[in-house]
Amino acid sequence: MSFAAVHAPVIDYKALSPLMATVGGSVVVMLAGLIRARVVQRALVPLLTAASLLACFGLLIWVWEPGRQEPIISGALTVDTLALGLSALFLVAGLVTILLSFRAEAVREAGAGEYYTLLLGSISGMLVLAAASNLITLFVGIELLSIPLYVLCATELRRETSLEAGLKYLVIGSVGSATLLYGLALVYGATGQTDFGAIASAIGSDNGIGITDPLLLTGVALAATGLAFKASVAPFHQWTPDVYQGAPTPITTFMAVATKAAAFAIFLRLFDHALVDSQLDWGPALAALATTTIVIGNVGAIPQRSLKRMLAWSSVAQAGYMLAGVVVGTRLGVQATCLYLAVYLLMNVAAFAVVVARERASEHGDDLASIENLGQAQPWLAWPMTIAMLSLAGFPATAGFIGKFYLIDASVSGDYTWLGIVIVVGSVVSLVYYLRVIAVMWMGRYEVELPTLPTLPRRHVKPVGGWSPEGDARAHPEVTLVAVLAATATILFGLWPNPLFDAARDIGTSLASLF
Amino acid sequence: VTIHLSIVLFLPLAAALVGALLLPAPAMRWLVLAATVGVLAYVVVMLADFDSGSGGLQYVTDDEWISELGIRYQLGVDGLNLFLLALTAIAWVPCTLWSVFREHERPKLYFFMLALAETAVLGAFMAQDLALFVVFFDLMLVPFYFLIGGWGTGDRVRATTKFVIYTLAGSLLMLAAAVALGVLSTPEGGQISFSIAELTRRSTGTGTQEWIVLLFALAFFVKAPLFPLHGWIPETYRSTPLPVLALLSGVLSKVGVYGFLRIVLPTMPEGAQHWQELFIVVAVFSILYGSVLAFSQDNVRLVVAYSSIAQLGFITLGIFSFDDKGAQGAVIQMVNHGLVVVPLFLIIGVIAVRAKGSESLRELGGMAFRAPVLAALFLIVTLATLAMPGSPNFVGEILILFGTLEDKLVYGLVASAGVALAAVYMIRVYQRTMHNRVGPAVESRDLDRLDFVTIAPLVGVIVALGVYPQFVLHRSEDAVKDKVQVATRQSPGS
């Protein structure tokens, strides 16, 4: 007997190296976390995590090569510019999370080693997901990203809502994953292929199957539903406010910016690569989904008092805007979505960092009351929040304006002018809650009409650290730094967005089938 | 290609940034004031240096900004915006001066926003790229949002939120329309461009133009505001601090109607023709509605507010008469209205101080007796507002009416009723404040030196323009004719 037919796949270690940096990093961090010395727990573990992410970032730049499309490891992964560009976003989000978690309660309660290992694990999942070029790696990636997050949501062990968030995310995330898996199975059943490229040619060829094939159609619909859960696209968004509010805020930040980017990575690959030839068929359905999401997200955010819940609803609305770039199925659309993901990261990081800072210093938690008169008390926090809100609302001279401009450009060019107008109308509605945040900070204590307080936030006595009016009533410098940096970048990219456009153009080269 | 316009444009913002970061608050406000004076000086030099013989753009700045989106940093001055820039520069000096000598909470933020507002408004007037225009048009809202919400009176947060949502609803729709115009006018295989000159050369289908024009008009009508879209007016005018209100009503309201001449007429002539009748009806309605409401208001600010609706109705009427004279009248009237509204609001501020803060006509009166200088200045402004012959406003309104009567006789006749109504409501305000019995809370005294220095030069400019309106007409003639001819060139009737 001979095993000559079985060849070990040729592995391009260079292209794989960014992923190896984070996976290896997570092992090192886990081992380091076993040492109980205070300096290791407080300083070394976060530093090692950051080092692993920075190494990954460096390798990513080394691997960056516009136009490369050939998959590695027998077609499992495609390390193209789309994957690398979005990976850069995950890494930035990871670094931000490390800074925000530096003095977070969650780390102390869950243990630094475990916390950061899970974070690196989740980032590795995202790297896999962004590069996935067949259905199997897609699913592996999405699970690798999700499972650590379920745990991370529940790391504030002594807070009921944190545990609730973890459980809720686990249950709903699993339903989403199951739906996705079912959908992927049906797609495989219909086309007989797991590879995106092969699926595309199976659908595209004349004697192949059309999108109207019931098996394929069901599969695509179920897969889209599963992804919509992950990206919190309405009507599959219900978990978002609860989980965002309950999870430790650094983790919320990570979920809001990185998970969303990962989910959109796969939206782009699945729809704008594998299924792009039938764009005329799924386009209207996805456009309807985008419209629903924009409406529901913006309306849902209006009555919120909790900043985290408000940002959660706003992230639903923003997902709707970004979906417009997927809908049109053009290269311009892909670029617009990727650019908006980067912009979205900056402005949300600025906002969430301020929430982290205020949560630690104020007795009001993440309630709107916690930022009252912040303009006078702490301008270094108030300005980043103001800039973030203006940018999310799409005011000019901020990156949010450029992002929206590009998305509308893509919508109009892709014959979806009405979707561009929906984006605009959604932005108008969003002013109600974004401007309220600014008004609370700058325009006096009792002037702003706020939604009524549902139930007074109960604060449990926390034996481990937590809020104490004497010791902790100031923003930590690293949190302020994150907020200021993100806000500065929001303004700078609003005035000079060309670097973002260059990156977006490189990313656009990765999907060859698009025009 | 020169850098002059960029210097003018960013001078206020740069001064405010430097002041806010490096100087203590008292020094910073002087620096901001100096910057506004600097802008004025620059604009005066520009007025003298302006070559009225050439119809094209002067002092052009043209650089790449966002090449991927086809957006250029393109600034220029021609007869159309020269005097609006002058108006902006003139208006900002007294309003800043007024603020410098009054105490504010958080003065640094206040003066920063005031300066940012000037840069944004100047930018909107200078921009020769549609996307750049949209950027500045929306950017204007940020400083005004803060100024009204932070230093206003009464229910100021509600007022400022309503103001921003109303106007941004319009301008975001305009953003979508602008992008659509850029994309849809791009020829097959061509590079997308938002340059207004380029958009004028390219063309889009008539059907496309129609809905794009409608979205633009929505933004401009809200900003002006005109009749059905003026819902933000009462609350905003009641709450806005007076020097800011003077700028809001005197200068900001012109950006929208200016947009019709700069953008809509040249780039979408067929769309503009399609809606001509509708826009004229809106304008005439605004004239009547504004005049009637101005007559029935008790709060002095609101009299001026509704009179502004009527005045902007006149301006819009002039533009959409599609006639050289009408459009010229509109341009000169934009400047005139700004010039009379700014001193009007400052005078209201002076009056309110003498009436223990009251701005209600019922409680005012009898001020002229002990305040002859105030009364004289107010009288000149009042007469200019009601377009007395000899005032620049008379020239503007007559030109608009001539332009309209030629082609649209009925509308012209109805609109002339507005001229008569203006006399009624303005004289009513003057009598109720300056004459009649002395109001219960009124303690009359004349202008102090500071207020005189703030207000008198503006009145001087009004008188000067009334004596010599050719100064404006001569310089704006070519540019205005050019815009109108583009719009009427392809009309089936002519």
Write the topology of this structure.
The complex is a heterodimer of chains A (515) and B (494).
Chain A lengths: L12 H20 L5 H26 L17 H21 L3 H6 L1 H20 L3 H19 L6 H32 L4 H9 L9 H17 L8 H8 L2 H26 L4 H23 L5 H21 L3 H31 L12 H4 L1 H15 L5 H15 L3 H26 L34 H19 L2 H11 L7
Helix pairs in contact in A: 1-2, 1-5, 2-3, 2-5, 3-5, 3-11, 3-14, 3-20, 5-6, 5-11, 6-7, 6-11, 7-9, 7-10, 8-11, 9-11, 10-11, 10-13, 11-13, 11-14, 12-13, 12-18, 13-14, 13-17, 13-18, 14-16, 14-17, 14-19, 14-20, 16-18, 16-19, 17-18, 17-19
Chain B lengths: L3 H19 L2 H25 L8 E9 L4 E7 L4 H19 L6 H20 L3 H10 L1 H11 L4 H29 L11 H6 L4 H18 L9 H7 L2 H26 L1 H28 L3 H21 L3 H31 L17 H14 L6 H16 L1 H26 L14 H19 L2 H20 L5
Antiparallel strand pairs in B: 1-2
Residue stretches of chain B low in confidence (pLDDT < 50, at least 5 long) are: none
List the strand order in the largest sheet of chain B.
Answer: 1-2
Q: Give the end-to-end Cα distance of chain A, rounded to a whole number of Å.
A: 50 Å
Mean pLDDT of chain B: 89
What are the low-pLDDT stretches of chain A, counting only 5+ consecutive residues below 50?
460-473
End-to-end separation of chain B: 37 Å
As an assembly, this protein is heterodimer
Gyration radius over CA of chain A:
22 Å
Q: What structural class do helix, strand and pairing data of chain B support? A: mainly alpha
List SSEs of chain A in N-to-C order.
HHHHHHHHHHHHHHHHHHHH
Determine the number of helices of chain A (DSSP H or I, runs of at least 4 residues): 20
Estimate the helix proportion of chain A, in percent: over 70%
What portion of residues of chain B belong to β-strands? Answer: under 5%
Shape of chain A: globular
Helical segment count of chain B? 19
Radius of gyration of chain B: 21 Å
Q: Say how many strands of chain A there are.
A: 0
SS-based structural class of chain A?
mainly alpha
Output mean pLDDT of chain A: 87
Q: What share of the residues of chain B lie within helices? A: over 70%
**Biggest sheet of chain B, in brief?**
2 strands, antiparallel
